């Protein structure tokens, strides 16, 4: 396993177009990094640069501190798992998993191959399918075979390019949690490209948001959600998306098309001097005012609005408020939409209400908004004026601590399951502690992914 450092990486294709533009990311050993962004923002290009399938135009790529820009893919010892699995149809599951080992001719004895394949298959619950052909497997099983191939190679890192996008929703959920648990158990550095909000938020220790080849923000999912650096990140992360309302600020009174909102002094101060701002409000910051306890009401602002309609979802409901922006505000929303790669930003606010709310479309209703949580964005630069960088950094620090604990717990559990909790007295490197029963007999590494430490 390894750390990966991207140092001002640039990729220009033949036509000079910068598909990746000055991206720097430090990926820690064992970390799970997600790359997200709209189609064409350079996610796959970045992944392919790391793995060596794409030349690096400028900048440095380091693996464990060693510059690898000029190393061939096979010498980087990274394993890539693709969307379409790339399995060999004529080979059994066993031989598909064993393939990378057979490729390294003479490097592994038959016994070693058998041991590695059997262990990987057990990890992935493929033991019963080893003699079958890929065509006879489900999508999820094929995906696991592809991952088995990555595991037996004892690669220093796994790189995934939308590995689950071909699967149906249910299986995707299942595979998502399998990948998550496996990553923790193996403690293997992983970089994962996805379009899927849920995958991004649940799998990643940190999520990197890209826009047109440029890194916007990299942080824990919670920091991205609560303290986005700009409009783009705020709008990209979260579902339903954050609402953006053009507003003018007078003292600590925000005048918006859905009503006047009194906001906390400290937020108003950060936006002082701006004539026009964009108010960013997540749907869940709203509530039916009737259902908010009195002592909480003072934390927010109550306004009257007429919802066009509501959608009851069982656990909650969505309500929709249309607003009619002034012409110059409409222009602002249009340019914002272009910036965010959306077709249009509808002059509409989505609110989530408690399932018990009796508010219905067509009638005036009192809506409460938790103004402590809203953000104010610069209408021109898109910068988040109210971001609390310290609070954000704290969220990411907490996430890093949780990761360390989770990896330790997962690996202990793994050790217990194999009846071998500690690793043959090997000193504290994590890769050693992942080595399972029988360690040392096959080059010091097993399906649990020890690096070629002992040979
Ligand atoms: N071989 C190539 N030659 C020229 N331009 C390319 C090539 N491959 C990709 N690009 C361009 O580089 C940019 C980034 O492409 P990339 O495939 O990395 O995007 P992506 O973020 O993975 O998108 P998606 O989510 O659609 O997979 C795009 O503008 C694309 O047109
Ligand atoms: Mg792609």
Automatic annotation (TrEMBL):
GO function terms (MF aspect): ABC-type transporter activity; ATP binding; ATP hydrolysis activity
Keyword Nucleus: no
Residues of the ABC transporter domain: 4-237
Start and end residues of each stretch annotated as Disordered: 402-455
GO biological process: carbohydrate transport
Family matches, as InterPro entries: AAA+_ATPase (IPR003593), ABC_transporter-like_ATP-bd (IPR003439), ABC_transporter-like_CS (IPR017871), ABC_transpr_MalK-like (IPR015855), ABC_transpr_MalK/UgpC-like (IPR047641), Mo/tungstate-bd_C_term_dom (IPR008995), OB_MalK-like (IPR040582), P-loop_NTPase (IPR027417)
SUPFAM superfamilies from the UniProt entry: MOP-like, P-loop containing nucleoside triphosphate hydrolases
Protein name: ABC transporter
């Amino acid at each position: 396993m390894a750390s990966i450092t991207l140092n001002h990486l640039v990729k220009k294709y033949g036509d000079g177009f910068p598909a990746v533009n000055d991206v720097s990311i430090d990926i820690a050993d064992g970390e799970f990094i997600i790359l997200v962004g709209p189609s064409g923002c350079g996610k796959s290009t970045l992944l392919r640069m790391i793995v060596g399938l794409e030349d690096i135009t400028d900048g440095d790529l380091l693996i464990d501190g060693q510059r690898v820009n000029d190393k061939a893919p096979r010498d980087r010892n990274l394993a890539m798992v693709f969307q379409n699995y790339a399995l060999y149809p004529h080979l059994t599951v066993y031989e598909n998993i064993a393939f990378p080992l057979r490729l390294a001719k003479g490097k592994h004895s038959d016994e070693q191959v058998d041991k590695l394949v059997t262990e990987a298959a057990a990890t992935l619950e493929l033991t019963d399918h080893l003699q079958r052909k890929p065509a006879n497997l489900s999508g999820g099983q094929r995906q696991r075979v592809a991952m088995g191939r990555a595991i037996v190679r004892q690669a220093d890192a796994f790189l995934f390019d939308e590995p689950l996008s071909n699967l149906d929703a249910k299986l995707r959920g299942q595979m998502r949690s399998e990948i998550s648990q496996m990553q923790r158990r193996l403690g293997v550095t992983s970089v994962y490209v996805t379009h899927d909000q849920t995958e991004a938020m649940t799998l990643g220790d940190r999520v990197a948001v890209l826009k047109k080849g440029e890194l916007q923000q990299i942080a824990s999912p919670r920091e991205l959600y609560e303290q986005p650096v700009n409009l783009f990140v705020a709008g990209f992360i979260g579902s339903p998306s954050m609402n953006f309302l053009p507003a003018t600020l007078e003292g600590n009174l925000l005048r918006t098309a859905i009503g006047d909102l009194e906001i906390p002094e400290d937020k108003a101060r950060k936006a002082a001097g701006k004539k026009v701002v964009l108010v960013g409000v997540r749907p869940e910051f709203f509530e039916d005012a009737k259902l908010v306890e009195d002592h909480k009401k003072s934390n927010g602002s109550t306004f009257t609005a007429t919802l066009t309609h509501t959608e009851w979802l069982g656990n909650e409901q969505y309500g929709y408020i249309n607003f009619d922006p002034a012409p110059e505000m409409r222009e602002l929303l249009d340019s914002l939409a272009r910036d965010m790669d959306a077709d249009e930003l509808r002059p509409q606010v989505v609110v989530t209400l408690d399932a018990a709310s009796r508010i219905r479309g067509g009638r005036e209703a009192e809506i409460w908004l938790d103004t402590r949580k809203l953000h104010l964005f610069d209408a021109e630069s898109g910068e988040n004026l109210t971001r609390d960088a310290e609070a954000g950094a704290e969220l990411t620090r907490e996430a890093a601590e949780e990761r360390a604990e989770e990896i330790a717990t997962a690996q202990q559990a793994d050790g217990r399951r194999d009846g071998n909790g500690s690793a043959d007295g090997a000193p504290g490197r994590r890769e050693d502690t992942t080595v399972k029963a029988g360690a040392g007999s096959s080059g010091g590494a097993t399906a649990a992914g020890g690096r070629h430490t002992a040979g």
